[in-house]
Design brief:
CATH superfamily of the largest domain in chain B: HUPs
Number of domains of chain B: 2
Radius of gyration of chain B: 21 Å
Oligomer: heterodimer
CATH topology of the largest domain in chain B: Rossmann fold
Mean pLDDT of chain B: 93
Radius of gyration of chain A: 22 Å
Shape of chain B: globular
Strand order of the largest sheet of chain B: 7-11-6-1-4-5-12
Strand content of chain A: 25-35%
Largest sheet of chain A: 9 strands, mixed
Number of helices of chain B: 9
Number of strands of chain A: 13
């Protein structure tokens, strides 16, 4: 099977980020880009499928990002993926989720796939809408929130999370599957993997390469950002040190009463 | 955009509470846009769900019950919504920001070439234009967006931000939505329930969460859950507790879990590192209990009680229960 894993580069999730009140943009000083943590589960799921199948199946990393993101893509390759494709085009800047999905669908259609694996969401935009969008545009089943996956090469058997547990769902390839963090424990790249990744191919495609003709960026967007506001900062509140149970419980109880929460 | 269409998420005839919240909000938005309101309910039990939703004041409830809608995942729901959207013409479509809602919303947006905004905490009509407000980057910034170059606009709305109020003069008419009989790709198999039906953290207005300080899985049952139940709330958890396998991922609040806005959030034995903070910092009131006064949550909790959670929480639970009796 040809497995393609879509990944996104996001600002470091552990950094305490802030918005510059003047420019209303994210202050990027000291905030590096990293692989979207949710995507690591998709990469791991792809690698495990390839290992289990052991039939010459391949894992390709796909991302839409500026070429400067190459080094982060290499980290995904270091985990064990075979190669990578980047859709990089200055015209894509300012794309909304619809624009992003259209461009990605065009490129993925060109690359070809049996199975696309995605993370459930990105840690910056957190829309969780790209998997659904992509599957609709590609005209393939979009099986989302999967916590267990297996495949015989033509059928995907999966457990999809529900609010109370899971439901079994089977689909035929080609298909798109998004996975949750319950699916596995992503591996760390080995030293050998890191060295090997340097030699792996990262091909870079432009919009012209994939024959994309729709309006892009701001012109192609169906939404526009009118305003960015900084939410009020939460102030440090009251601190009560309770040496015994009654004292601590009363402090909370009275506070909840005071706020009319009880 | 004139009409407002609400996707009524339901399970076996029971609508999710967020469906009522969206139905209530839809009326106000449609009045401002000068259009009508529609509800779309599909899947097994859709008729029953429509009956239950009637009280919340939608104009027409379109029902697709049984058949393919009960046997396949997502696709028939999108077909039902598409049929209503095509008949209604340019419209605003509201879906809940839930697993099902996000899928239905993104798929219908792709199909209708619509704009989509996500995780809205407010939807406003100003000068005939729909504007949606969403926190982004984990609540670091609040964006206001509008639709452009699109006949349809889809908004996924965060549960628990709008009130669900039965309408004074609800006159919803139920209409059967005949969908072409068809087989789809994603056939639903056996459904396995691993937890007792309970209010999820996304929808609860009170959430009591446990973290590393619990030291193991048992206190979730013996300490956290009793307080959550006494308060009529849901049980949440930090990443540390989920990663340790003490509680399923569905309960996780934070960057790699759920982002929630309850009116009260009680963090028990949770330090409040940035990845947790982004999931709950928009809560109305935050109360923390920790044995350490020098934890990150001390900087943004409205009340921090420094003490032994194993003693304080059960005592608090007793007081809350006693209060309910009076």
């Amino acid at each position: 099977m040809k497995i393609v894993v879509t990944v996104k580069l996001v600002p470091d999730t552990n950094a305490d980020k802030r918005i510059d009140p003047g420019t209303k943009r994210l202050v990027r000083t000291g905030v590096e880009n990293v692989l979207n943590p949710f995507d690591e589960y998709a990469i791991e799921a792809a690698l495990q499928l390839r290992e289990k199948r052991n039939d010459g199946s391949t894992v390709t990393i796909f991302t839409m990002a500026p070429e400067s993101g190459k080094e982060i893509v290499r980290k995904a390759l270091a985990m064990g993926a075979d190669d990578a494709v980047m859709l990089s085009d200055a015209k894509l800047e300012g794309s909304d989720v619809a624009g992003t999905a259209h461009a990605m669908a065009a490129a993925l259609g060109k690359t070809g796939f049996d199975l696309i694996l995605c993370g459930t969401q990105s840690t910056d935009a957190i829309t969780g809408e790209l998997p659904g969008f992509l599957s609709e545009l590609l005209g393939v089943p979009g099986l989302t929130y999967v916590r267990k996956i297996d495949s015989d090469g033509t059928t995907i058997n999966a457990q999809r999370e529900t609010d109370l547990g899971y439901v079994d769902v089977s689909v035929s390839t080609p298909a798109l599957v998004s996975v949750t963090k319950a699916i596995n424990e992503p591996r760390y790249p080995s030293l050998k993997g890191i060295m090997g990744a340097k030699k792996k191919e990262i091909s870079v495609l432009s919009l012209a390469d994939v024959g994309f003709t729709r309006a892009t960026g701001n012109d192609g967007a169906k939404t526009e950002l009118l305003e960015l506001a900084t939410p009020p900062v939460r102030e440090k509140g009251r601190v009560v040190t309770a040496s015994e149970a009654t004292e601590g419980a009363r402090a909370i109880f009275d506070f909840l009463k005071e706020r009319k929460l009880l | 955009m004139r009409d407002v269409i609400v996707f009524i998420e339901q399970r076996a005839g029971a609508p999710r509470r967020v469906s009522y919240e969206l139905a209530t909000k839809a009326q106000e938005l449609a009045n401002a846009l000068g259009g009508k309101t529609h509800g779309v309910t599909a899947g097994a039990g859709a008729s029953q769900a429509a009956e239950a939703t009637k009280a919340y004041g939608l104009g027409t409830l379109h029902v697709a019950d049984g058949g393919a809608t009960a046997e396949y995942l997502i696709d028939p729901l999108v077909d039902a919504l598409e049929a209503v959207a095509k008949t209604a013409g340019p419209a605003l479509i509201l879906v809940p920001n839930t697993m099902i809602g996000r899928d239905v919303g993104s798929r219908i947006a792709a199909r209708l070439d619509a704009g989509i905004t996500s995780d809205a905490t407010d939807v406003i009509v100003a000068d005939g234009r729909v504007k949606t407000v969403s926190p982004k980057l984990g609540g670091l910034t609040i964006t206001t967006c509008a639709f452009k170059n699109a006949e349809y606009g889809v908004v996924s709305v965060r549960p628990n931000v709008f009130a669900a109020k039965p309408a004074a003069n609800a006159t919803a008419s139920l209409e059967n939505l005949a969908l072409p009989s068809k087989t789809y790709a994603m056939k639903l198999g056996a459904e396995v329930e691993e937890a007792a039906p309970e209010l999820g953290v996304e929808e609860a207005s009170i959430v009591v969460s446990g973290g590393r300080g619990l030291g193991g899985p048992e206190p979730f049952t013996t300490v956290i859950k009793p307080l959550a139940e006494a308060l009529g709330g849901a049980v949440g958890a930090s990443r540390a507790a989920v990663d340790a396998g003490w509680i399923p991922h569905a309960h996780q609040v934070g960057q790699t879990g759920k982002t929630i806005s309850p009116s009260l959030y009680i963090a028990v034995g949770i330090s409040g590192a940035i990845q947790h903070k982004v999931g709950m910092r928009t809560a109305g009131t935050i109360v923390a209990i920790n044995k350490d006064a020098n934890v990150p949550i001390a900087d943004f909790a409205d009340l921090l009680v420094v003490g032994d959670l194993f003693q304080i929480i059960p005592e608090l639970t007793k007081r809350v229960e006693a209060e309910k009796v009076h």
